[in-house]
Structures are given as C-alpha cells and as structure tokens.
Amino acid sequence: MELITNFRLFSQPSEHTTQPNGVAPGVKKEPNGEQVTFVSTLAHRAQSLSPQKQKQKSLENAGFVVSKNPEPSPSAYHHSPYDSGDNERSFRAVSTTIPQKRKSQSAEASDVNDSSDELSLPLISQNGVLDNGVDSTGPSLKALGKRPAISPKTPSPPPQLPPADSVSVVIPSPSAAQRQQMKPSLKPEFIGLCERYFPTGREEQVKAQRRAYPIATAAKVNKKVVPFTIAKPTLKEHEPKPAASLSLAKSFPSQGSASNRAIEPETKASTAKLLRKKLRKKLKRICGGPETLFDVSDEQLATLSANFFFVGDYRLGPGVTPIDDDFLTGCDCGTVCDPSTCRCLIEEEDSDELIVAYERLESGMVVVRKEFLDRKAMISECSSRCLCAGSDCWNHVVQRGRQVRLEVFDTGERGLGLRCLEPLIVGQFIDCYFGEVITKKDADARESANEGKPSYLFNLDWLLGNGHHTYEESYVVDGQKFGTPTRYINHSCNPNCKIIPVSTNRLSDQRLYYLAFFAIRDIPANTELTFDYHPKWDQEKQIDPHAVKCLCGEQNCRGQLWPNIRKKGIQED
Ligand SMILES: C[S@@+](CC[C@H](N)C(=O)[O-])C[C@H]1O[C@@H](n2cnc3c(N)ncnc32)[C@H](O)[C@@H]1O
User: Fold this and answer.
1) 512: domain range?
2) What CATH number should be reported for the domain holding residue 384?
3) For residue range 492-503, what is the model confidence (pLDDT) as tens digits?
4) Based on the structure, what is the number of domains in the chain?
5) Which one of 190, 381, 460, 468 is most buried, counting C-beta atoms within 10 A?
6) Are the C-beta atoms of residues 421 and 525 closer than 8 Å to each other?
C-alpha cells in the first residue's frame, strides 16, 4: 500500500484505501459531551498525585493554607522581657506554626546549654536601644541575617513606674470662639481666580476656604487639556525617598510606573528561572520518554511557557469521533508475534504477503527495515487487545513512546528547531506528532486566522479518498497550542527523518492514526532533525512567489516549503 506524507496539505488522497471499519484505536469519549480525549495504547500516561500530595491538595482546596516550611510569624519574635510564663503559654497556644528552621550550630549549642524552652530575646530599653548596643530603630537583626544576642537568664526586672513627682496634665482644646480670639489671622479669606470667578454664594465661599479655587492670579484652567495622570509624583533629586517606599520597592518592584518598566537584570534572571521551571514541569507531564531540554532565549521560553501545553497523546476536538473501542481486535500469536501469520499485519497490495515494517537489531532495538523506509506505506502495529500486549513483542514500537533525548533550540531564521542529544540509528523511532485533532473545517478557519505565522497543522488524509470518508471529512492535527517537541521539527529538502503513519487498529479508523517520526539515516548526536514537509513535490513545478520561502540551505533546495495553493483552499493535482 503506497501512501503519501504531507504536512498540512489538502492533497489528492492516496489512490488506495484500506480495510473496512471494524476495529477502533484507543480512543475514549469524555463524559462532558463533545470534547473527547484520546486514550491511546501508548505507554505514556499522566502520573497521578501521591497520596500525601492529594491530602495537601484537598486541604488547600478546602481553604486551608498548608505550609510546607512554616516560617515563624513576626509575633513569634516579639516577646517582652516582662512576659510571664503564662504569656508565653498563651503565645504558644495562639501560634499554630512552630518554626521549623534548621538552627545554626552555635544556636543549637546554646539550646543545649539552656535547658528550659523559654525564649531568650534581647532587652529593649526605652530609647529604642537594644541591650547589646544595637539601635532597634535601625535595620532589624533578622534583616541583617544576625541572631539577636542571647540575654543572660536573669530574673525579670519589675515594671518601671513613672517618677512620683511627674504629673500628667490634660490640656483641653480651645473652643472655636477661643481660636478666633487667639488667632484672628485664621479668619476665612476668600480667594478667587479673578473678580469674575470670585466665590459668591455661601457654598462657594466654603469651597474657597478649603482652597478649592486656584489662586486669584492663576489663569483659568481648561480641564479638558490637562492630562489626567495617576502616576506617582516624581521625586526631585535632592529629595530623600520615604523609607517605607524604599523597602517596598525592593521587595515588590513596581511594574506600573514608567521609571520601573525597565526590569532589573536580577528580576529578569529569576523570571527566566521560574519559566524554565514551569516548562520543565509541563514537560514532565509527558510520561514515557526522557525529558526534553530547551536551549532557547528567555523571551522564547516565556512565549512557550505561556501559550503551549505538552501532551502525550491526541486531544480530540469538537466534531472528531473515533470509532468505538469495542471494535478493537487483537492477534493471538503469543508473547512474540509471528511475522508470517500475525493478524495485525496488513497484506501487500497485489499479494497475500504480510508487510513487516520492523526488524530487531542485535542490540535488541527494533527499527524500521531499510527497504520499508523507501516505501510510502503505513505500519500496522499490534493493539492493546493482542496476546503480546505488554510483552517485548517487536510489533509494539510507536505505542511504547519516545525513548530518545531531544532538545529544542534556536535555529535563527527558521525559528525554533529540534535536535537529538544522542546518536540515532537509521530506522529508529523518535516520537509522534501529537496535538489537537480538529475537523478540516476548523483547521481551515485556524489557518486563515494565522496567515503568515508558523503552521502546525498536519492533515490526517493518508487513507482517504476511495474509502468511507471523503477528503472534506478528514481530520487535522494542530500542534500549535497542544503538542510534542516534534512540532519544532523544521523542513529540509534533504531531510534526515520522515513521518510514517502508524495504525494500532489495523487501519480500521481511516481518520485517526499516529504520525510517527523515524530516522532515515544514521544521525549523529546534536544534529538538527528535519523532514520533508511536501514529499510529493514535483521538481518540475514552478516556484510559487507567494509560498513560504525555504531556508534549509541544502543543495537541492526547492525554494519553498509547500505550494501556496493550499492557502486558497484549492486541492493540488
Ligand atoms: C512546524 S513549525 C516548525 C517550528 C518552527 N520553526 C517554530 O519556531 O515553531 C513550521 C514553521 O517553521 C518554519 N520553517 C520550518 N522549516 C523551514 C525552512 N526550511 N525554511 C524556512 N522556514 C521554515 C516555517 O515558518 C513553518 O511554518
């Protein structure tokens, strides 16, 4: 069976269609209606939370703040030297968070010497000077990273009473009439813009007293031309900054005002660190393969982290209906399939001979046979219903998931690219192209909305045409928002990889199958992985000046990625 690979091409369907319906891929409908999620037979699955984390999560969901490393609350440091043991007990009863910080050796030593569990804190005199000579109005010891001096264990001094001869006197405030007599200059003074705008009525006069009017000499203000600003007034150079805003600015760099818009290098670095952490976390959700690394700029990382989700399988969109799981069948070869009789394999076009795509190397690795790599055919793997499922059968390759280490990197003009971090052998499976599976109609709409931007659409039209479904009914994989690292594989006119469609349901679902990347030659470590976006290319064709220009730099470069014709919704011949 000869098939054609196209990266987002509404191409002429393959001449050959396949088996009738009967078996289904591992696809499951979600209970919430149309949106369904593909549950494949692939080995990678999302890890569930550990029971401990689940417990913590449920506490958090219930409104509890579950502190992993409880920090002592500020009140834990505030302890009057006059506090009685009762006070301390009540403090302990209130503070539910006991400091868990690891103590320094000296602190531990002092704890050993101090057999009681009473808190020993520095004494603070009335003028704000600590007994150890440090001004308590200055930076706190905690802020300086120092421990307060341990006061000797002495009995608490008695409370200090004011001297007997000092008498406190309360002076009553003067009445309004008294104030008038004392300060006649406080008499209301009416001011206005000019005679014309002088306050007249009582209400206006009150407003004038409260300085609601500009001074009499000022020109009339046209409020329409005065820009409204909510920015903080800029401080003049000689003016000292208020202490509070200084410390706040340090801990919470403001993003609103223009002066703070340029983010400090440390903030930038820590943001990038956070983004990398976030991305790594996202990547870890894809089980079944080694972690993919990112050698990209912080800006690219930010974009990736914000707008992209890694998935380990297809996400089925509205209107995408897989065939039912009940149709899945399996072979009964045993733990290892017999290539001459296995019912999961498909026959050659013109004979009953079974197509065997894989071979096991001496190293034990299963790869696609070299002869098969030159063909345009589909691979039919065993299913989860086979007797060999879960064993080391050679006919389970793609469904085992990625085994190689990959890295996303910046290629420059061609955007991000993907490279392997270890040498690959010809025929070796790399990874699948996953993403959202959407209808062709939705894909067309997305494509026109994304005109001029990188395309991540991949048509699943290999088996359509002569079968049960028309080309218009085909599905498209969109790797834009949800995808695998393979979405970064760029085009080359002399590629080192190719996509082979793989069915795990004996081609019974003509619209859903895997798009699997295989190496078509030995690839040294750290080489960029590429494939041909348009392998059906006819070299005789003229280059479309409106098509996306190819920058692969190969000697046989065709000059364009794909014909622009698909943008107009016209099928190629
Ligand atoms: C599937 S994406 C590949 C990843 C993409 N480079 C990125 O940064 O996300 C396909 C897009 O990459 C760019 N691209 C891929 N191969 C290219 C090539 N040989 N020359 C120029 N642009 C290429 C095109 O913009 C194309 O639409």
Assistant:
1) 36-44+286-568
2) 2.170.270.10
3) 999 999 999 999
4) 1
5) 381
6) yes
